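Example 3.
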Amino acid sequence: MTDRFDTGVENAWCPGCGNFAILKAVKKALEALGREPHQIVLVSGIGQAAKLPHYVDVNVFNGLHGRALPAAAAIKMANPGLTVAVTSGDGDIYGEGGNHFLHNIRRNVDIALFVHDNQVYGLTKGQPSPTSDPGWAGSLARSGVTSGPFPPLATALALGCGFVARGTAADIDLTADLMLQAIRFPGFALVDVLQPCVTFNKKNTWQWYGKMVYKIPEGHDPTDRKKAFDLALEWDDRIPVGVLYRVERPHYGELHPALAGPPLHKREPRAETVRGLLEKRTIGVR
Amino acid sequence: MPSEVNIRVTGGAGQGVHTVGTLLFRMAVIAGHHFHLTQDYMSRIRGGRNSQTVRIGTEPVRAGRDTAEILLAVNPDQLPGVLPGVTPGGFAIADTAESFPNLANAPLKELASAAGSPILANVAGTGAIAFAIGFPREHADPLFEEMFSGPFREKNRKAFHLGWEWAKGHLPGEWSTRFVLPPGEFAPRIVMSGNEALALGAIAGGCTFACGYPMTPGTGILSVLADEGPKTGLVFEQAEDEIAALNMAIGAAYTGARSLVATSGGGFALMVEALSLAGMMETPVVIALAMRPGPATGMPTRTEQGELEFALSAGHGEFPRLILSPGSPGEAFDLAQHAMETAERFQVPVIVLTDQLLADTVVDLDPKEIVVRPVRRHIVRGEQVPRTPKGKYLRYALTDSGVSPMAVPGEPGITVVAGSDEHTEDGHLTEDHRARVEMVRKRLRKGASLARETLPPLFTGPPRGDVLLIGFGSTKEAVAEARGILAGEGKSAGTVHLRQVWPFPAQEIAEILPRYRTCLTVENNATGQLARLIRRETGASVSGSILRYDGLPFAPSEIAAEAGRRA
């Protein structure tokens, strides 16, 4: 059933990597979405996670490390008819690309962001990432991380993000459903997906997540932002997965004065309009 | 009667210097004359010393001069600093009790108060100037309708009239006759600054996506795109930083939009990795790089041409690029259109070099000389999209020209895969060394195709001569005027204006250099970057360079004098 999205490109992930599960979830979500491959764009930066779009037969923009969000935002602006999702790692999105994370949530561009959050830089062989636990010892930090962790869900909520969710590579169905909801959500939608890095992160392993993760109960009101903050800050004792918050507000495409209309590649200036702009600057023409 | 007069108004920011300049040039056009306006401002919002210099002539005026025949000092405290800039035989107007031999003491504040408010002193002064240059008082009347609203229309008009009357009754004899211009014949003229011209040219050239982060002197380009762009369907967004700006423009270009960003040296520095991305992904994008003195923050409101070598080499890795360098607002309008199309035609980043001088220079233009070119797209759609036997589209198909047919996402039945890693024809990442060589050669072939469309430099002068002045970008008009001065002194001079610096027109330059005894580059930088580029690309050295790097533009007379000394 997910075969139709296979590209046949040789996979470069470690056996046992959480990315395989996330890939399955992405394909499942896209299958359920029901759109054609040419109507979908997956955007990523650089890292192991960021290779995912090459394994899905849709339009792909695999840009620079940390710079997936600016590209994705602009792709959506240039053609709002496309479904645009970013799928990249925690270092790429929260570290190198931190400023773009903050400001694209503010813009509320109608894109989905799936972060493969394994709390480590895998491709460069094991440095801490912004979401690494304090005290965790990695490459370049052999005596343990001293900085506090970057809290992506709480940060997104603080910025007014309309859809905030956490998934896990251990539950493909849950994560696929969150991804589908995120894609369908009108506005910026974040799904932070917990995954292990079997090669470099010996703390946040499959087993560790198995003990810590619990599903947000049915009774949680996703329009309750204060409760969502509480859930976002739970980590040390247990980690909630599911939809923390979901409230719609006007998104970038609805607010921007010039976006409505054909996609940008179909727009061309009318010569009379251009001449009008020149006439406006002509002394002696009224 | 003189055929031109140079008028300067100085004051603090917030004292209405800009208004005086606008009134003067609009009156000039109404009177059937031509003008060239330059602006000189500090990096602040109020106070300091700002000036505008309006050079009015009976023939088109394309460059500025250093001294002014008439000076209006709205802030009289600044007189000691600005009086030396008055031409011998010229005069200044200021409201002060101090006396100087070339100062006409005018009670501007009193006249302004009589008109309604002392802040109108600048307009009262403008009235006095108008009298001195022989402009009929009524020419200004329609301007007050256009430029002001509500009660200020009448107050400004009155202040202007009172200033004019004062000059008629009190301006010493020679000063009320020496600078009177002969009457002209009105014809409609377009008035544009270099920044406006570049932005409007981009709009005319089909730009549909623009973004940027404000940075002087590039911000004016963004303002015009943001304000006027929506009329042609352009989408503008202010980016959170310059890194975002160029990455956004590339994302939009991948999606088929003609994209532009505008910035200055420091912002361009942040864009450099993304420039490399455009080179690897082969996305069209135009970067307007409005230069100012560096390094680092430098002098934010002054002019320089210090980023030539930076623009040539920016971006890690090797990839083709186009670099254009317009020399006037008219040329900026035309080259911006050329940039938008050529970027898409060859799928390369295009850098348009401008600077504070060109950005803020305003001139009048003959509407017939401003050509709006038809927009020609270079995107493949539908039947034109080449597909493999299995129905796949190869974004980076190897071709003889090096240019792969470019489809955009959304095209039914295919997917467009673009990546920043080295890739195979289908866009997917590869570490295969043979594929790497194929792609490098493809990009270089593309560069060769681009080089075959190089805009030749503009040459003026006799086939052989004493001194050849070579420049790029905003030195064009000052150099042209310098040539006229040298010719008037009996020296045979030629000029070369490079409106494209990369790919470099090596053949044309190599051919012309030997025909002149002394070849000098004229550049607003300290190290002679153009001279080095000429040597690098042709093997030939120029005799030397005329350099100015104090943050201010060349005066034609200074170029001519220096060239005369070295020839």
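The mean pLDDT of chain B is 96. The two ends of chain B are 34 Å apart (CA to CA).
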